[in-house]
Amino acid sequence: MCGHKRLDFLLLNKKVNMTTLLRVIFSFTCILFSFGFAQAAPIGSADTIFFGGPIVTVNAKNEEVQALAIQGGKIVAVGALADVKKSWQASGTKFIDLKGQTLMPGFVEPHIHIIGTAMSEVLGLNLSNFTLPYDTLDTLVAKMRAHLKTVPQGGWLFGFGVDPSRTSPFMAELTADILDKVSTTVPIFIINQSGHIGYVNHKALEQAGVTENTPSPGGGGVYVKDAKGKLTGVLIEPPTYAPFMAKMPKPSATDLANAVKKTTQNIAAAGVTTSAEITLGFQFGLENETKLLQELSANEGLPIRIRAYLYGPAIPAGYTSLKPNQGDDRLRFIGVKFISDGSTQGLTAALNEPYLYPKDTKNRGDLDYKSEELYQQIKIYFDQGWQLAVHANGDRAIEQTLANYDKLLAGNPHPEARRLRIEHFTINTPAQVKKAVQLGVIPGFTIGHVNYWGEAFHNHLVGPERANRIDPSAAFKKEGARFAFHSDSPVSNVGPLNYIAEGAGRLWQKPPRKVLGADQRVAVDDAIRAVTINAAYEMMSDDKIGSLEVGKLADLVILDKNPRKTPVEQISNIKVRETWIDGKRQVW
Fold first, then answer.
1. Using CA atoms, how far apart are residues 319 and 317, in angstroms rounded to an integer?
2. What is the DSSP string of 515-581?
3. Using the 8-state DSSP alphabet, how is residue 391 labeled?
4. Phi, psi for 163 (deg, rounded to 5)
């Protein structure tokens, strides 16, 4: 007879003596203790509990805790190991001993061109060089000649990553004549590291039908000519790329999908769990690229979450296929992106005062749109409820963007709710920082500018005063405002640990290494927030990701060292050991 039935029987039997009853109750109590039922029942059954290393929460207090529990892809507990075990340990709970390694929120990348990176680094010739020594025109020609052997009959040689500001001699630039040394029969199209300048040979000009009589396309686009009116093969701004991209053979759907998979795997390997696609529609049209991401996401082909921004010029008139915030936690369409000027290191960003190179130049770059023209375009999408992101590198472009944002937000008592973005915010003024904070604008800094181009900015392109203020992290921190770091990949490599080191140290790469704008350095904790919770806030996702807190999605990264306890100059050397999304370790 079972214990509880025996007890019921005795309670109903009025003739049982008290001694016998007490013995039964005592025996029953012992049984309960032997099975552990006398202890308080756990709140729930965790799938996984992490312990054994620092767990950096990035919560409001920047706390580190001993343990973290996951259930059903969400964080259900953070705190002392004993407390977490007491409340969430069950027979099926898996314990993961970090063995001294560090657990952090998965990194958040708010500005990547995912499809552009797939084209540049997987399907095309990757000419990017972020190491020393710099390339020369001869080494670039040699790389292209070697790659030419892989170009199929009727194909184009497409490449990305040439950078005159990181070429020896300084500012040595490709032209159609130089590219003709690679081939006069195969069309060649190379995009500058900034993404804002292109280079083509004469065969590409011929196939694209671009001649000396072809008008520049607007939107900042210029087909550059020499003093005699002849095309040099240099293209300024993406609108000039269109006739060449129209003639280039497109990758198959399978090849493109595989390239995007590979790219997102590389992004995840850097510890990133959520990334923007910041110019959806730029490469192959909005409908095609939307379909590509939706199909990959639906078939578990993406190891990361994506927040997509539609590329404004690619949106057809009257477009209604996507609505603001459409999608799910894996793939969501949240914003619209416009470009207001060019590249600072490419000498095309719109500045208030001229560049310093070449000597005595009057060039101060150009705005891509007249102010009212830009306003009318962004207002359409602002009124529809989309988040706006406007690329503005130079202080003149920043000024234009802030003025237009001010008009959009006129009378709005809570401008921060719209979280309007300015991408890069590179060359800036103190007044622009204050205005951005007033409008609730979230700046995103390509913090690699400091590392890879800091010396060129300081010594050659804009001079110390302007260069020291690029990516003004400390200025925003002083105002009590948020800022985020990003790669702008393929403009610079994906690597949030690099951004932390660059934001906290601000050392430029070229020897002799120096600090660029010491007063714009921030604490490591602030730099960590710029690649986690602040970046999540910038993409309207801080309620779900960006910190390790109860109720948030279990997106995690395991590092071999704690960046909070590592010398700034060594943070870039920290290794990403594992990346977790929805409480599952990503394996590819």
1. 5
2. BS-GGG---HHHHHHHTTHHHHHHTT-TTTSSS--TTSB--EEEESS-GGGS-GGGGGGPPEEEEEE
3. E
4. -145, 100
pLDDT-derived band at 76 (thresholds 50, 70, 90) equals very high
390 located within any domain: no
pLDDT digits (tens, 9 = 90+) for 83-121: 999 999 999 999 999 999 999 999 999 999 999 999 999
| 27 and 134 share one domain | no
CA atoms of 381 and 371, how far apart (whole Å): 16
Q: Is 140 inside a domain boundary?
A: yes
> What is the distance between the alpha carbons of residues 472 and 262, in angstroms, rounded to a whole number?
33
Average model confidence (pLDDT) across the chain: 93
Q: At what angle do helices 448-456 and 496-505 cross, to 10 degrees?
A: 50
Q: What is the mean pLDDT of residues 417-421?
A: 97
> With b meaning 16 or more CB within 10 Å and e meaning fewer, what string describes 32-42?
eeeeeeeeeee
Contact 395, 428 (CB under 8 A): yes
Percent of the chain with pLDDT over 90: 91
- Domain boundaries, position 24: 3-34
pLDDT at position 132 is 96
Q: How far is CA 308 from CA 77, 242, 328, 390, 441, in A?
A: 30, 22, 11, 14, 19
Same domain, 131 and 201: yes
Residues 165 and 238 in one domain: yes
Query: Which two structure tokens, joined as six digits, stand for 327?
Result: 């999608």
